[in-house]
Amino acid sequence: MLLNPEKALFIRGNAPVLLLADAPVHKVLPVLPAPGGAVPRCEGWSIVPRLTLCVVDGPGEAGLIVPALTAPVIDGDGGSTEPGRMADWCADAEQAGGAIVLSVDQLPEVLDWTRLLSSGTARGGFVPSLA
User: Fold this and answer.
1) Is residue 58 a contact partner of residue 47, using CB atoms and an 8 Å limit?
2) Buried-most residue among 63, 77, 97, 99 (CB within 10 A)?
3) How big is the CA angle at 33 (ends 50 and 89), to the nearest 5 degrees?
4) CA angle 70, 72, 78 (to 5 degrees)
């Protein structure tokens, strides 16, 4: 399933994040928050982060493709929301061995991680890269 790039936000950092809005895989991802506040690993899922496309593949028929080159990227380190580059996000994901994939109803105007993760509607977790 192709996801409109306007419904995705790539957030750079030591733990890169792919934030999805109204994603077709929302109900298949684990519910957040996890016990103890830890982000769970999404078993049976994988991510292939590339400059032009980002593929998130789940169990069975679950999965999506994001046209990454046209999707927004921000630098999330230190609370920054400055525009970033997709190539840098891909490098972050490679170094981390994957990315945190979070699915919400709609993209927030302001990134408030505590609010996002405690909303009761967010789903996702750490998705490892395919080797």
Assistant:
1) no
2) 99
3) 20
4) 150
DSSP state of 38: P
Is 111 within 8 Å of 32 (Cβ atoms)?
A: no
Residue percentage of the chain with pLDDT more than 70: 92
DSSP β-bridge partners for residue 6:
none
User: What kind and span of H or E run contains 61?
Assistant: none
Q: Look-up: residue for tokens 């994901």?
A: 93
Q: What does DSSP say about strands 46-49 and 98-104: parallel, antiparallel, or unpaired?
A: unpaired
* pLDDT tens digits, 38-90: 788 999 999 999 999 999 999 999 999 999 988 999 987 655 566 779 999 99
Could you tell me which of 56, 30, 62 has the C-alpha nearest to residue 43?
A: 30
Of the candidates 66, 65, 92, 69, the residue with the CA atom closest to the CA atom of residue 11? 92
The mean pLDDT value of the chain amounts to 89
